[in-house]
Design goal:
The protein is an alpha+beta fold and about 250 residues long. Helices cover about 30% and strands about 25% of the residues. The protein folds into two domains: about 15-140, Uridine Diphospho-n-acetylenolpyruvylglucosamine Reductase, domain 3 (2-Layer Sandwich), CATH 3.30.465.10; about 145-245, CO dehydrogenase flavoprotein, C-terminal domain (Enolase-like, domain 1, 2-Layer Sandwich), CATH 3.30.390.50. The chain has helices at about 35, 40-45, 50-55, 60-65, 65-75, 80-85, 195-200, 205-215, 230-245, and strands at about 20, 25-30, 90-95, 110-115, 120, 125, 130-140, 145-150, 160-170, 175-185, 190. The strands form three sheets. Strands 1-2-7-3-4 form a five-stranded antiparallel beta sheet, with no helix packed on it. The protein has a four-stranded antiparallel beta sheet with strand order 8-9-10-11, sandwiched between helices. The protein has a two-stranded antiparallel sheet with strand order 5-6. The chain is globular, with a radius of gyration of 18 Å. The termini are far apart.
Length: about 250
């Protein structure tokens, strides 16, 4: 790394900003956590976003840390990676101009689901010359629900033991679409595909929640480390799934 040619993209104007196009929210890869906290688009879509963000790092770090950086760091417990996995976010990967090249950053390239970016521990479906140029996701509908949960030894300024997010769209009293993610329970940030599929067509009740927890256990592969044993992490994720269900607004259960 010390001998590599480096192109800093943090201050590239084309990579800044958070905009809405139709029902899509498009986030430039240089957008920071604080940018999201100050975005009317994000706050309208996620009324509890400030509460979620306060669980992550400190103000100076939130002022500098980018969402794309969180993704590329590929930590299995990256808080905003888990947040956007549940939303089935897509990432745009763009070839970088050659070092010292003239002109603005190229913004064409390929798009992949965020959940497909991770191939193994710190292994990405990304070529060395590619960088994330944008992130986008479908904004929640009126009948949608989102929640993020994080457990760490300290409430603030600490790395998660386990974190999880859920995005649900309801049709009447049934779940039409669901996305569940979890961190700290595998070598990569995890989109729980089987658990998400299990929830479709179900009503939110104790039987559904317990079924989702049992399905979750077939997808994860936690290890024991300084943040807890594998048994503890499995139990903890089950509790977070229950917490998601308990946070549903009245009238949706």
């Amino acid at each position: 790394m010390t001998n590599a040619d480096i192109r800093f993209v943090f201050d590239e104007p084309v990579l800044n900003g958070i905009i809405k196009e139709g029902n899509k929210c498009i986030i430039g890869s240089s957008a920071t956590v604080s940018d999201l906290m100050n975005s009317s688009i994000i706050n309208e879509a996620f009324p509890d976003f400030h509460r979620y963000a306060k669980l992550v790092s400190s103000t100076p770090i939130r002022n500098m840390a980018t969402i794309a950086g969180n993704f590329i760091n590929a930590s299995p417990i990256g808080d905003f990676t888990i947040f956007f996995l549940a939303l089935d976010a897509q990432v745009g990967l763009t070839p970088s101009p050659s070092p010292g090249g003239e002109g603005s950053v190229i913004i064409s390239g390929r798009e992949i689901p965020l959940r497909n970016l991770y191939k193994g521990y710190k292994q990405l479906d990304k070529k060395p010359e590619e960088f994330i140029s944008k992130i986008w996701f479908e904004l929640p509908e009126k009948n949608s629900f989102f929640n993020f949960e994080k457990v760490s030894k300290r409430t603030n300024l600490d790395i998660a033991s386990v974190n999880s997010a859920i995005s649900i769209t309801m049709t009447g009293t049934e779940i039409a679409k669901a996305g569940v993610s979890a961190g700290g329970v595998g070598p990569v940030p995890m989109y729980l595909q089987k658990t998400s599929e299990f929830l479709k067509g179900k009503k939110i009740n104790e039987e559904t929640v317990n079924g989702a927890i049992e399905m979750m256990k077939t997808e994860i592969s936690p290890i024991s480390d300084a943040r807890g044993t594998k048994e503890y992490k499995t139990l903890l994720l089950g509790q977070l799934i229950k917490a998601h269900a308990l946070c549903l607004p009245k009238g949706r259960t």
